[in-house]
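Trying the structure run again after the queue cleared.
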Amino acid sequence: MKKITLVIMLMVGVIATAQTTIKGKVVDESNQPIPGANIALEGARVGTVTDFDGLFSLTVENSPPFTIVVSTVGFESSSIDISSSVDDLVITLKEGTELDEVIVSASRTPERIFESPVSVERFGIKEIKNTTSVDFYDGLENLKGVDINTNSLTFKSINTRGFADFANTRFVQLVDGMDNTSPALNFVLGNLLGMTELDVNSVELLPGASSALYGANAFNGILFMTSKNPFDHQGISAYFKGGITSQDAAGDNEFYDYGIRLAHKFSDKFAAKANFSYLRGTDWFATNTVNVLDTATDRSDPNYDGLNVYGDEVSVNIRGVGELLVGRGILPPGAENLLPDENVSRTGYDEQDLNAYNAESIKFDAALHYRPFANDFEIIYNGKVGRGTTIYQGANRYSIRNFFLQQHKIEFKNNNFFVRGYLTDESAGDSYDTRFTGININRSWKDDPTWFGEYAGAFVQATLAGVLPEQAHALARQTADTGRILPGTPEFQQAFEAVTNDADLATGSKFQDATQLRHVDVNYNFSHITSDFADIQVGGSFREYKLNSSGTIFTDFDGPIRYSEFGIYTQAQKKLADERLKITASVRYDKSQLFDGNFSPRLSVGYTVGEDRNHNIRASVQTGFRNPTTQDLYIGLNVGRAVLVGSAEDNLDRDVRVFDDVSGAGVGIIGSDTVTITGRSAYENSFSASSVENGAPVASGANLVEPEKITAFEVGYRGKVKKFIIDISGYYNQYKDFISTQNVIVPYYGQVSDIASGDLTALAALDNRDFEVYQAYTNSDVDIKSLGATVGVTTKIHGFDVGVNYTFTEQDFDRDEDPDFRTNFNTPKHKVKGTLGHTNVFKNFGFNTSYRWSDSYFWEAAFGDGNIPSFSVIDAQINYKIPKLKTTLKAGATNIGGDEYFTAFGTGFIGSQYYIGLTINNL
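Done. Tokens:
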């Protein structure tokens, strides 16, 4: 027994002596604490993170001597040799440059930005804390080459290198590896339902094509948001922001935003975290009443169609109405000749009568992290749920109310591989289409035939009484509008509730959606095996869509529509010439269930020059492709100005519509006042809209949509010249089978193809105004190219961070070759941005300012086309740290000066935001 006791005591003594504890503090060169710095045992996955005061305690199962490595974003890493336990170690880190920051996105493997084979931007913890914007997501707009189109207060759309709208299907956003795109509505949700800023570890952005590694739709760029791991970032953090939004149309309105993060490492094997945030405010009012049909006229135009006015899209030829009334014996013969041969529209409602302009975002996520062997192998469950209220501008303006999205992910990974699977499930909640709300409130009060019949009858009577046409129109509208439901009345509210809760667009405006997306990613890095030859990776992905809108968006009237796609890829990377030359080659194959397969190769070369290896030159050629979106393929939706019909082969005959406005002359031709049209007619029996407008109708020639392809050439330089960090890049893109939309005219009767053989029935339909405008999803045969360049310079002057960048972007497209085709480039040719700040201008006090200037540009999209004037914006913030309370106070303002602007035609003007904030223990 004594021997056993002695052995146990000896074992305990050995274990005790094998544990070494190091305590200390990490500071910068000004002796200021550095929170969130990583302290790790060299060669092992053992480490900790400094707290708000820069303090740390690390216990390892190793006996000295050994080495610890200290690192954090914005500073040079430091290796410290440890010879014994220590309680008061002070580690000073030298400030580094952005070139030393490590990224993963460019090659799916860790590497310095300096040697990245392609252009890349990074927004780390330091930038997030010091952003002048109200939240970190808005702060991304200050990165070079980045555009943010503001849809509403809580919904922004990021893009790079042109061809953008709010859906922005050419740009991918990944949150912890999960695609943040709404699978049905096709828009990236931005940060409406994304990540809370307390949990953001880093944001990386790759401008340009990335399909070789990331597959379909990583076409114009890809954004990666990575959250903090609870093994490394523990504790309770919280923030609160409050202030006002100020806009001429909306006035001054309060907003507030608060959040909390809880994370704990229960052992070396198990850690967990949870995040919650809530934002509420008032959105930017959209009040543009310009007549989109004739900007030189106003509401006095009988055919007025205001941009942010809804219900006035319903328009008919008033003489045609007279002909029908004469044919039915309501008007005497010849009375139709007293009516002008022109269109008249119904009276609409302003958007602010149809939208409460509430802005709300509720986000919650939780993650469980398990390391069964207490090493680099990790199993992660991550669940995200969010609900939001905002405004989305697509073909129409949509009031997104209580939109709900959830994502659930299981991931297995270590330093060499990951397997990730996730589900995205969304619900449209109480969302509705504001245009159809206006249209159907009108119709719920008085149907279109009655309203236009009363208008025509009153006009005839006024004309017979000797009234001039302008006054006759006013009297006719007054007569037809007698008893109209007015905003602010109980009758209006009752009609509004009825319409917005009705999912039939013939009578309502609600849209339903329970679409799902399932996705699996896998990647294995063989570098630990093949590094003597090259660093090699292989991987793949699988995605399945389940469209389920109950016929309110897609043609899924009889049940969900399913389709899938998959891809596989490989990459090899090799360093040569004393590791100055870096060659990266990759290729990916993708196959959609609906289209032929596609290969996407990429080749890049980087070379580091200079005695100190401070200059890197890179060149790359890469390809990308974009599969048509769910809406490109399966939409079937009448948006008022046009019927949108997707071009999947099995979609064409599912879109069936009955039109009951055949003219009297048309009734004489076909013997009926109704016609049935299928979506196939948009592609096989239609005129091009521009040819009809020009008086020389020809067939549209709209083909079924195919995947879009890009070949991108890029050259660049990154380097350090004395105290200046310089980053220059230029690119040239060539597009093939560019996807966009084409407006076509479908005649109610006759075949367009028969005109050549002498059958002019289809032309008679045009003469009788018996046709419908459709929007087809197709590809352009015209060569479309774009080119651009960015230049960025940053430096530090007496502790002040100074940066300036310039972006040039231009498309090369001859519209005369295809006048019906819309590229939706929507990007300014020139942009300039600048920043000036100091994190510690005096003790615990810092500030930051940013400036953005944008050239004017033309915006074209389904909702409307118009010019965007040039604008300049200044944002600023000041902050004060209270180390003892582990707290930072912040006050700031965006768009200082209040010169309102807008980035897209049809949205509300962007005013100013003034805010104060409090952040506690944000490591």
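The first helix runs from residue 2 to 18. Worth checking whether this holds up in the mutant runs.
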